[in-house]
Amino acid sequence: MTDARGSARPNGGMPHAPGTPCWVSLMVHSLDATEEFYGALFGWEFRPGPQPFGPYVRALLDGREVAGIGLLQPDSHLPVAWTPYFASADIDRTAESVRSCGGTIGVGPLDAAHAGRLAIGSDPSGAVFGVWQAAARLGAAVTGVPGAPAWHELTTFESATVAKFYETVFGYDEEPVVSADFDYVTLRLGGRPVAGVHGVGNAVPRDRGPHWTTYFTVTDADDAVDHVLHLGGQVLKPARDETHGRVATVADPEGARFRLLQGPR
To answer: Where is the VOC domain (predicted)?
Structure first.
């Protein structure tokens, strides 16, 4: 993982460099209840649109976009989960690269109104991710400050093969952890860490399979955990000190899992 120091990019700024995590999105069964939960937890405000597939809102933090939440169809059986999106300058080419490297594209590429183009795919292990080619909407305008995404981490069976997939598709450099009992690769772009791949072998949850997890920065992880419980969420792993800060694993009332990260003081 990287550190939790924040950075902001004005909404009128330059697009994210290809391969950069640029957005995170959640599809839910109750949009109003989910807005209430995350608004209270992170201080988000919400603005509608774009809505090419149904109701969708953008979460804003101090007026800057940080995430999106959309409404699932009533008969949908898709898992409720946060999905990271990676920037692309040519989404059709990226989608073809995903396929040629053993992944799949389940949605798109297609237009998201005037905002840009998107695709949703999965890597060879089955973990779902998105791809975004910006037009009017550049993606997240702030990261790593309280209430904003700080890090994205893939939990999978083993890191080497899957990391190579993302390296080929998005142009990352790999920085493996040299350890006999810890299988981890940091994906870097332009010398900067942007995401992690954690191989856990048979410890991959059977009910979820390989999956991406988003870390959100908080000022105080223990207080945030208490807030999650008060708002009707679940605590899956209590806050504990790790190398890069204090981390807790939680879930919102619909079961979408995420991590709370309090950076080192």
So the answer is: 20-134, 148-263
